[in-house]
Amino acid sequence: MPEDSHPAPLQIVLVSPRNPLNIGAAARAMANFGFTHLTVVAPYAPHWQEARSAIGASDLLQNAKVSTTLAGAVADCTLVVGTGTLTHRKPEQPVVTLPDLPSRLIPEIERGGRVALVFGPEKHGLTREDLSCCHLLVEIPTHPHQPSMNLGQAVAVCLYELAARLTAPARINIQPHPSSSHPAAPDAPSADLELLSGVIEKVMLAAAYSPPSMQDANRHDLRLFLRRLALTRRDARRVLGFFRRVLHRLERWSE
Amino acid sequence: MPEDSHPAPLQIVLVSPRNPLNIGAAARAMANFGFTHLTVVAPYAPHWQEARSAIGASDLLQNAKVSTTLAGAVADCTLVVGTGTLTHRKPEQPVVTLPDLPSRLIPEIERGGRVALVFGPEKHGLTREDLSCCHLLVEIPTHPHQPSMNLGQAVAVCLYELAARLTAPARINIQPHPSSSHPAAPDAPSADLELLSGVIEKVMLAAAYSPPSMQDANRHDLRLFLRRLALTRRDARRVLGFFRRVLHRLERWSE
After folding, report:
1. pLDDT in tens, A79-130
2. Distance in angstroms (rounded) separating the CA atoms of residues B204 and B207
3. Nearest CA to B179 among B228, B138, B133, B132?
4. Rounded to whole angstroms, how far apart are CA atoms A207 and A246?
5. In this structure, are residues A13 and A118 in contact, taking their beta carbons and an 8 Å threshold?
6. Is the CB of B171 inside 8 Å of chain A's CB atoms?
7. Contact A149 B98 (CB under 8 A)
């Protein structure tokens, strides 16, 4: 395997990890498979401190970014992939199994996109709110009797699959990005989608689109919807400009 | 994934694991990927006890076999695969990378063979003596800066690869067993090879084949040699019968 083979295009995000041993194990798996960019979202401070100060804690842990929200952590990413078992919930995004993930990521990375692979807390995994930041879910094909994996082991298995296939393109059958009509342009980063989502939500409210009791559900559906569209940056900016204009008008009339 | 998809044909062997957390993690990964047969060789008794009595310890750990030697643990196996990093040693057996392991195991299992996947202790991995029980080594393709994996994570990664590919034969390109001229007959189990090896060693001594100082080195080379041959059971029995006869003669003459 070539050295420094997985630079910035792919970052690993751990949302609120609890166990310092798991944080260390995730970092070790990253080092094993040549990934360097770790972001930790809203860690429990004492455990995060413990993980970073452990004997043998790597540069990778020392250099990890800390973010208060998942939306902030993935702000510059064009493809956000959530992990976890889908046994007890109905997925709201497209799902791929792990062996099929590399062929989905490679075109995104090749056209200059940035990918985040997001892991939830040990106990309950990613929340519905977390999942609404994801474009795609990946499922590790586990046995129905014991579907739930240990965090450090799940990270290791995912990164093994990506390292083995991303560095050996000949092994995989690259397929075109199924949801994009702009193969040459990377998708809009998550921050643009969040901005757009926020403005559209205000438009909904200003237009009294639905009762206030529906606001949370609408926001959730909207975030997922925007991610399904695979907007380019340029698309996102134009749509944003349009909705800002609409909002401005609505607010003026309601004065 | 179908239930009970990996019965007896494949067993996992942990040689002298030290950390109860790692034993538990290995067992959890086995359950995650539908493997049920665990053997532990010469465990450190207090730690083994602790792992088995941990909260949530699985039936799999309760039902694990314990063996005093690796040779005993793999006695009924026709293909013994050793794991570990090869950074600091020159392999004496054929080596495959993990992505290529399924295509090597499937023909063995299809013709009725039994496979063992062997993991060494956390600190130093499998010894040279352990490796002499192996027909084949598997290497997980890790980054040169941090090649050595945590035991529980290494087990998870190997079993993920096997489960994903063994249950999806269409994914892989099955290749014929490169070292066998008997595609229809399974190889001799390890116990037969051990028996044969022991008799041949006695013949060497009885025949004063080489100075006693060479005995350990000869034994080591002999074990590796017999495993390279891929003898069928019938082959092994016939060769054994021959060497028993030779030994009987040598011992009679030396009286």
Report:
1. 999 998 766 667 778 899 999 999 999 888 888 889 999 999 998 899 988 9
2. 5
3. B228
4. 10
5. yes
6. yes
7. no
pTM of the model: 0.79
Separation between Cα atoms, residue B5 and residue B35, nearest integer Å: 8
Enter the tokens of residue B9.
Answer: 């044909």
Q: Does B144 touch chain A (CB under 8 A)?
A: yes
Please, which pLDDT band fits residue A253 given cuts at 50, 70 and 90?
low
Are B141 and A147 an interchain contact pair (Cβ–Cβ within 8 Å)? no
- In whole angstroms, what is the distance from residue B94 CA to residue B195 CA? 23
The whole-angstrom separation of Cα B253 and Cα B247 is 10
Arithmetic mean of pLDDT over chain B: 83
Structure tokens at A125: 């995994």
Chain B CB contacts of A29 below 8 Å: 149-150, 153
d(CA A200, CA A192): 12
- Strand blocks (E) in A92-152: 95-97, 115-119, 136-139
- Residue B101, chain A, CB below 8 Å: the answer is no
CA dihedral angle for residue B235, residue B37, residue A124, residue A132, rounded to 10 degrees: 20
For residue A89, which amino acid is it? Answer: R
Encoded amino acid at A80, one letter: V
Percent of chain A with pLDDT over 90: 40
DSSP β-bridge partners for residue B14: B40, B119
Q: Where residue B158 falls among pLDDT bands split at 50, 70, 90?
A: very high
Sheet holding B65-67, edge to edge: B65-67, B38-41, B10-15, B115-119, B79-83, B136-139, B95-97
Q: How many CA atoms lie within 13 A of B132 on its CB side?
A: 16
Q: Which amino acid is at A218?
A: N
| Contact call for B3 and A29, based on CB within 8 A | no
On whether the CB atoms of residues A204 and A196 are closer than 8 A, the answer is no
Q: B136 forms bridges with which residues in the sheet? A: B81
d(CA A64, CA B247): 66
Residues written for chain A = 255
Tokens of A30: 């990253």
Q: Do B1 and A149 touch (CB under 8 A)?
A: no
